[in-house]
Amino acid sequence: MRRRVLVATAATLGLAGLGIGSTPAAAAEHRTITVWPGQSIQAAIDKADPGDTIVVKPGTYHESLLITTDGITLRGADPDDRNTVLVPPATPPPNLCTFFNGAASGICVLGQLDQQGNVLRQVHDDHIIGLTIKHFTGNGNGIFGYGTDGLQVRDVSSFNNGAYGIARFASTRTVYSNDSASGNKEAGLYIGDSPDADTVVTNSKSWNNGYGIFVRHSHEVKINDNSVWANCVGVLVLDDGQPGGVGDVQVLDNNSRANNKKCPAGDGPPTSGGGIALIGAVRTVVADNEVENNNAGGTLASGGILVLSSPTTHPTNDSVRNNEAFGNAPADVIWDGSGSGNTFTDNECGSSVPGHLCE
After folding, report:
1. Distance from the Cα of residue 56 to its chain's centroid
2. How far is CA 101 from CA 132, 136, 192, 206, in A?
3. For a 10 Å CB count at each end of the chain, is N or C smaller?
4. Which is it for the CA torsion 86, 89, 95, 99, positive or negative?
């Protein structure tokens, strides 16, 4: 389980002081800038002011984009069809995001950072709508946000990227809505390194990734009305040992089925066959979900709904209630018995460990 962070190498690029992330003076009137096939999306972003909208006409664009200005809306001309497609350029752009990740990503939204990757100033209220982003291999991501506030990613498809489909780190007030993510090595939809995430993931689909929806080292996240399938784990809420841990997550009204892909051991143990897994989570609610046929078995993260300790943290005050869980192995609901204040009520399921967690 790789953890992508920005590290102290900016001076190597001659970016000491990192003016990147500064905001130009607001325009008197908000503009709509149209980009046609053969034109540069990045050129439109570079000349946009806060409040401007960039509309990209249908076509395939070989670009890796960087947004550091507040309040830009970048959208495809036909959001319902998502036929504005972003694929890697022949040569990765020599920008800060490429340098930190070691590969080109589809769209990077970056705040102002110091040379250690700490956020000096967030970039606010950028919206990305109605695009398809794919094939950013290596450590590339479909969308990568770092130091964002109010980032919205809506009606976006992110396919076959080397790390994450749609990811944001060290950010607040994020919305992922009606997105699709598939074939991404690490996770389809990711929320990380945010003690006050205040983030919503809703009405989205994530399949055939490492993890469908992955929350790590973050608090205040709501995951509702999503479908996840054919991942190694459908929804994973993980304490990875960083100070502050993970918790205050709501996992509500999701469908998690047949997440039986096999992820080999990497930074952590192998995983497969997990529907919804809380590992070291605190004050987390799992309610009204349908969890079915996650039954590959054979790893610690196998089963329908799991509440487990991490190496550093016991689950505490978690609530698992009103879920339907059937056809999962080795059991539909599993609790390792650790922690305190954890409750399991009104769950319709066929089997549990220990045996009293079903209705």
Report:
1. 24
2. 21, 11, 15, 23
3. C
4. positive
Is the pLDDT at 221 greater than 50, yes or no? yes
CB 3, CB 240: distance < 8 Å: yes
* pLDDT, tens digit (0-9, with 9 covering 90-100), for 15-51: 333 434 444 444 458 999 999 999 999 999 999 999 9
Phi-psi region of 79 (alpha: psi -120 to 50; beta: other; left: phi over 0): alpha
Distances from the Cα of 82 to the Cα of 152, 178, 310, angstroms: 16, 12, 39
Closest CA to 181 of 167, 195, 170: 167
CA 127/CA 179 separation, integer angstroms: 13
| Choice among 93-97, 182-186, 221-225, 303-307 with the minimum mean pLDDT | 93-97
- Give residue-wise pLDDT tens across range 239-275: 999 999 999 999 999 999 999 999 999 878 899 999 9
Amino acid at site 23 = T
Gap between the Cα atoms of 295 and 155, Å rounded: 31
CB-neighbour burial class of residue 291 (10 A; exposed 0-12, middle 13-18, buried 19+): buried
Spell out a b/e string for 132-157, using b for 16 or more CB atoms within 10 Å of the CB, else e. Answer: bbbbbeebbbbbbbbbbbbbbbbbbb
N- to C-terminal Cα separation, the chain: 34
Tokens, residue 347: 């769950």
Contact present, 7 and 118 (Cβ < 8 Å): no
**What DSSP assignment string belongs to 83-148?**
-EEEE--SS---SHHHHHHTS--SEEEE-EE-TTS-EEE-EE--EEES-EEE---TT--SEEEESE
* Residues 332/339, Cβ–Cβ less than 8 Å: no
User: How far is Cα 104 from Cα 85, in angstroms, rounded to an integer?
Assistant: 15
In degrees, rounded to 5, the angle at the alpha carbon of residue 21 between the alpha carbons of residues 17 and 27 is 130
